[in-house]
Amino acid sequence: MAEVALSHAGLIAQIDATELIHGKAAFWWLGQLSFAVKVGHTVIYLDPYLADDAARQTPPLLRPEEVTNASLCTGSHDHGDHIDPEAVGGIAAASPDCKFVVPSPHVERVIELGCPPDSVVGLRPDETAVVAGVKITGVKAKHESFDETDLGFPHLGYILEANGVCFYHAGDTLVYEGLVTTLAQYPLDAIFVPINGRDARRYRSGCIGNMTYQEAVDLAGDVRPHLVVPAHYDMFASNSADPNEFADYLDAKFPDLPCWIGPAGDKVIFGGPWSENDRPA
After folding, report:
1. What are phi and psi of 36, to 5 degrees?
2. CA-to-CA distance for 192 and 23, rounded, in angstroms?
3. In this model, does residue 187 exceed pLDDT 50?
4. What is the pLDDT of residues 58-100, one digit of tens each?
């Protein structure tokens, strides 16, 4: 279920005031593949992209210095809309107790951006850590390619478990052999997946691609989460997609799987099976 979208001080106040029972969580989409998620009393920012960039088609809902409530912040890979230098440094200053989880090759990078060294946790695929009370497991991501180095994989998704809720934030990735097997091990309440796809024009321009909306639908059909949330389709004119095509294909192929598509800043409660009364608009 969704509530009216907010931004800035109102959004932070709504996150802080949200109370959740065991087995329920709340998320607020912040645009692109950025989300604020609250589980219990823990506030998680997934790939927060808060830079006031002229290329954005949607404005940032929060300024980094306003994020005073972060318990955990993740970055999936070192692109500016996923490990945003302004957001990382600003959140580290505004939320001094916040912990940061990134792929192991990027630990030094986020420390350079202003995170205290003891606040940063680097993960490799299949590694699990408990950070800020959240169990978080790295899932390798294929952002056109795996690009593995001696330090590990530079692109990750994450499985996060807390307060009786389990969800997957894919980061930027294609669907690859083994991803379904990995995700199927978990009782997923939600998955947050990119749908912007890829093509030759974007690749030649240096815009590295993701799964298409059809591939994202098929992934959801294979892993059967309680809720599917498409994202990474709204931010840049040259790298966008139509989420209604995702929703239509999902409805045609897996009509029993609910998805949420809505404006950035909406509050959405999730966790456990969806009933018709809970189905997002």
Report:
1. -100, 130
2. 18
3. yes
4. 899 999 999 999 999 999 999 989 999 999 999 999 999 999 9
Which parts of the chain are beta strand (E)? 2-3, 25-31, 34-39, 42-46, 72-74, 99-103, 120-123, 128-131, 134-140, 156-162, 165-169, 190-194, 228-231, 267-270
Which amino acid belongs to residue 247? A
> What does the DSSP 8-state code read for residue 152?
B
Amino acid at 208: I
Please report which helix (H) or strand (E) contains residue 247, including its range: helix 243-253
Mean pLDDT score, 137-154: 91
Q: Give the tokens for residue 145.
A: 């390619």
Cβ-proximal residues to 26 (8 Å cutoff; 6+ apart), any chain: 15, 18, 20, 37, 38, 267, 268, 269, 270
Domains by residue range for the chain, with CATH: 2-270 (3.60.15.10)
Q: Which of 36-50, 202-216, 224-238 has the lowest mean pLDDT?
A: 202-216
Residue in 140, 115, 114, 117 with CA at minimum distance from that of residue 127: 140
Sheet holding 190-194, edge to edge: 128-131, 134-140, 156-162, 165-169, 190-194, 228-231
Binning the chain into helix, strand and coil, the percentages to the nearest 5 are 25, 25, 50
Helix, strand, or coil (residue 167): strand
pLDDT for residue 166 is more than 90: yes
